[in-house]
Design brief:
heterodimer; A: 227 residues; alpha/beta; Rossmann fold; seven-stranded parallel β-sheet; globular; B: 123 residues; alpha+beta; hypothetical protein PF0899 fold; three-stranded mixed β-sheet; 6 strands
């Protein structure tokens, strides 16, 4: 019996495609963000409010993943930015190949910001790199404040936690400080914004976070050159 | 299921490099932060090798704990119950150095011998 060392990642093929995507995003100065949450936490609502706020001429696009239906893409299309639905047909996460395929007929040079709305699931999407600059995890106040402890992987790997539906706080037994504390136990120093897509509360902080990330992303070639 | 499939694909790719042998066991390393449930992976793996030429392939799983390194005193330690404070100097300035592995560790292969010729021809 021989033991052959393999010493590579299980998802090395996905990681290879993701690295190619990341290089292409970098080359074009695109900030790519991967939004992940349980089903119904408000990823699409957050994107609706975001697209509504961004100027019409902004160079933004969205890929939105679901197991079935074009419903989310239809919701997002009314803001006149390019939106494409990825229906996975049963797969519970997006992978880098799906992103590559659905980007094929978009001109990356026309984009600055790409949102990827993952399939609603806190588990598998955390394993699949999509070439994003950052993962964002959305947790709504109708869920448990111990979710960061139950699903540590995605909270560990995400740069930002968006606590959503905060307009419901008076009606639900959700301890928002405990949720933030749990997230920071898993991911010390994690950035957190609290938003309500219904009232607009906290959306300003989210847009500021987004804008800062966009500024940091722009390659030198795209920044204004004086003289 | 997709993870189990990726493991199996890697085994098939690797076997192309080892003619005259068959795979007995594949070893994977899973970090406790990797969001992979061992039992679910085992169940999926058994389901996809069932009634294939790789039915006898065993899956070995090594679970890796979350480890941090203290930025102050450089002590490396295992994080338990999400307590990432350095056990030596109590600093909270510690960084994660492992625990999110999802890696292929090894593949055990056996040469086809006279006793396994039957196994080979039945594939």
């Amino acid at each position: 019996m021989d033991r052959v060392p393999l010493e590579r990642k299980v998802l090395s093929e996905n990681d290879r495609v993701a690295a190619e995507l990341r290089a292409r995003f970098q080359e074009h100065g695109i900030l790519c963000l991967n939004l992940i949450s349980s089903p119904g936490s408000g990823k699409t609502s957050l994107l609706e409010r975001t697209l509504e706020t961004l100027p019409r001429h902004d160079r933004v696009a969205v890929l939105t993943g679901d197991i079935q239906t074009e419903n989310d893409a239809n919701r997002l299309k009314r803001f006149h930015f390019p939106v494409k639905q990825i229906t996975t047909g049963g797969t519970c996460h997006l992978d880098a190949r799906m992103i590559e395929r659905h980007l094929a007929d978009w001109k990356l040079e026309d984009l600055d910001l790409l949102f990827i709305e993952n399939v609603g699931n806190l588990v598998c999407p955390s394993s699949y790199d999509l070439g994003e600059a950052a993962k964002i995890v959305v947790l709504s106040v109708t869920e448990g404040e111990d979710k960061p402890l139950k699903y540590p992987s995605i909270f560990f790997k995400s740069d930002l936690l968006v606590l959503s539906k905060i307009d419901l706080l008076p009606y639900v037994p959700f301890d928002i400080e405990a949720a933030a504390e749990n997230a920071r136990k898993v991911h010390p120093g994690m950035e957190i914004v609290k938003v309500s897509c219904l009232t607009g509360n906290g959306l300003h902080e989210w847009m500021v976070w987004l804008e800062e990330r966009r500024k940091a992303r722009k390659p030198l070639a795209q920044q204004p050159v004086s003289g | 299921m997709a993870i189990a499939n990726s493991v199996l694909e890697a085994v098939r790719t690797e076997m192309g490099l080892h003619p005259g042998t068959y795979p007995c066991k594949v070893g994977v390393r899973i970090g406790e932060l990797a969001a992979i449930d061992q039992d679910a992976l085992r169940f999926c793996f058994e389901a996809i090798v069932h009634e294939t030429d790789l039915e006898s392939l065993a899956l070995g799983i090594e679970v890796c704990p979350r480890r941090h390194r203290c930025q102050v005193c450089e002590r490396e330690f295992v994080v338990r119950d999400y307590d990432s404070r350095c056990p030596q100097c109590a600093s909270l300035e510690t960084t994660c150095i492992s625990g999110d592995e999802l890696e292929l560790a090894y593949l055990e292969v056996e040469e086809y011998g006279p006793s396994t010729v039957g196994a080979k021809s039945s594939q």
